[in-house]
Design a protein that fits this description.
Layout: E1 8-13, H1 21-37, E2 41-43, H2 58-70, E3 77-82, H3 88-98, E4 104-108, H4 124-138, E5 143-144, H5 155-174, E6 178-182, H6 196-201, E7 205-209, H7 211-219, H8 226-238, H9 246-266, E8 270-273, H10 278-282, H11 288-296, E9 301-302, H12 307-320, E10 324-333, E11 336-344, E12 356-360, H13 362-368, E13 374-380, E14 384-394, E15 399-410, E16 419-424, H14 428-437, E17 443-447, H15 452-463, E18 466-470
Parallel strand pairs: 1-2, 1-3, 3-4, 4-5, 6-7, 6-8, 8-9, 13-16, 15-18
Antiparallel strand pairs: 10-11, 10-17, 11-16, 12-13, 14-15, 14-17, 15-16
Helix pairs in contact: 2-3, 3-4, 5-12, 5-15, 7-9, 8-9
Length: about 475
């Protein structure tokens, strides 16, 4: 599923009839202008359907709820706008009657100091509190703008809207995610155990396939098959393959065809693969390049059958619209307490690198043989924004928990191999203590963005997960 599909918001314009009508008409138009500017579709009452196309009475609530219900499969979130005090009961009733359970953003107009007369007075500062009180009473989780009152045609509200749209994407897609577990987890990795049942309780499904089925199907494909030749061209166009044996490239191509067929058959959004050591011992190749290509195509793929790891990758991707990667919190960086090295053998999406090549997995090669470990993607991530996240199923307490935060990729010297990066995270030692004390995995998902604030809101407000938020940047978004 395309994580950047056009967002559709149901819009409720709140009104109190003893405030000036002109405020409603202008406020409604302001919101529609901003949504159009941001390429967001609106489902909103026609101006002739109710007074000024706003919601105030029980009858208005029924009309708006019916409109929302007709478009329920399109609507990703609800935007409540208050050009004046608004009618809190009409707004809450609309959402209740629609039966929509989507993210809600409440925006209220500020008053102007020079316009406190009856003809321009808004009182939305107060009205927003009443609306939020009713949403709370009705049991609807909701989000707020950064400022308590804000005009729509401002940079502040545009940032609020961009963040809310990302929250809507995360909530809608993640609660319907279909994850693929390819092979059994490596026996040595208790750390990647997880609960399918806890994930399913939040709408996240897991489909499984044994590696023997993958290998058997791949070995039935001939070297001269048209699809193999096409896949070889795709691999060669994706990453330099100089020095890689042709038999290894043929094996990768066939493996990629089988994985694509299986994912398509079951509608898989993301995969977690047993990347060692059955692949090397029984098939003779690394799957890292194929995983990198999938992640680059916004079909994230994680190592070592880390299903909650790939769920974390998917969440970050939905928040930013950019590829994610699974990493090890791997090494200290000298004596700097706020820097560390991120590493994996080599399956990160190539957009993480300024220069990339195909190689072999040097660590695995020490026990599995160089000839069986071709297929990694090697490169270094340049300086830029960095977000990280981890979802885990805490089976001992029967809950899902998470952490997320922001930092920076830095260009400090690093002489090693594989997919690698140096990052700087404020109060990193505090984060490591939290990870260890609370039983989180050594894997984390990363993304070249500052989107932790988006995930924190999505996880806590709309999923109800206990989420530790660390070092969040002031403004959260993919293009900071």
């Amino acid at each position: 599923m395309n994580s950047q599909q056009k967002i559709v918001l149901g819009v409720i314009v709140g009104n109190r009839n003893f405030f000036p009508d002109s405020l409603i008409s202008q406020g409604r138009q302001d919101i529609l202008d901003v949504l159009s500017e941001q390429n967001i579709d609106a489902v909103i009452l026609d101006e002739r359907a109710t007074k000024l196309g706003a919601v105030e009475t029980w009858e208005n609530a029924q009309q708006c709820a019916a409109l929302f219900d007709e478009n329920r499969h399109r609507i990703d979130g609800i935007l409540v706008t208050l050009p004046n005090f608004g009618d809190e009961k009409g707004i809450a009733d609309t959402i209740q009657l629609s039966s929509l359970r989507v993210p809600i953003l409440v925006q209220a107009y500020p008053d102007d100091l020079g316009s406190f007369g009856l003809e321009r007075r808004r009182d939305a500062f107060c009205g927003k509190i009443s609306v939020c009180n009713n949403l709370y009473q009705y049991g609807f989780p909701f989000s707020q703008t950064e400022l308590h009152t804000v005009k729509p045609k401002t940079d502040s509200f545009r940032a609020d809207l961009a963040q809310f749209v990302a929250i809507c994407r995360v909530v809608k897609r993640l609660k319907n995610a279909r994850l693929g577990a390819v092979g059994a987890r490596p026996n040595a990795f208790n750390t990647t155990r997880y609960s399918e049942k806890l994930l399913q309780a939040f709408g996240i499904s897991v489909s499984t396939i044994d590696l023997s089925e993958i290998f058997g199907s791949a070995q039935k494909i001939g070297d001269d098959d048209r699809r193999v030749k096409e896949r070889l061209e795709l691999i060669g166009g994706y990453v330099g393959t100089r020095g890689i044996p042709v038999p290894s490239l043929l094996k990768m191509s066939k493996l990629g065809i089988v994985l694509d067929d299986w994912m398509g058959r079951y509608g898989i959004d993301a995969t977690a693969i047993q990347c060692w050591d059955s692949l090397q011992l029984n098939y003779g190749v690394n799957v890292c390049t194929l995983m990198s290509m999938m992640s680059e195509s916004l079909l994230p793929s994680a190592c070592e059958v880390d299903i909650t790891g790939v769920a974390s990758m998917y969440a970050l991707q939905l928040a930013s619209g950019k590829p994610s990667a699974l990493v090890d919190w791997n090494n200290n960086y000298g004596n700097d307490p706020n820097k560390c090295v991120l590493f994996h053998c080599g399956n990160w999406a190539k957009s993480f690198f300024s220069d990339v090549k195909m190689a072999n997995a040097e660590i695995l090669a020490t026990t599995l043989g160089t000839e069986n470990t071709y297929g990694t993607v090697a490169g270094r991530t340049p300086a830029g924004p960095f977000s990280y996240a981890r979802i885990t199923t805490d089976d001992r307490h029967g809950v899902i928990r998470a952490y997320t935060g922001d930092g920076y990729f830095v260009d400090d010297p690093l002489d090693t191999f594989g997919s690698r990066a140096v990052v700087e995270v404020p109060r990193l030692q505090e984060l490591m203590k939290y990870i260890c004390k609370n039983g989180f995995e050594h894997h984390a998902a990363m993304n070249a963005s500052h989107t932790a604030k988006i995930l924190s809101e999505a996880f806590t407000t709309y999923f109800g997960w206990e989420t530790y938020t660390h070092g969040v940047s002031k403004q959260s978004g993919p293009d900071e």
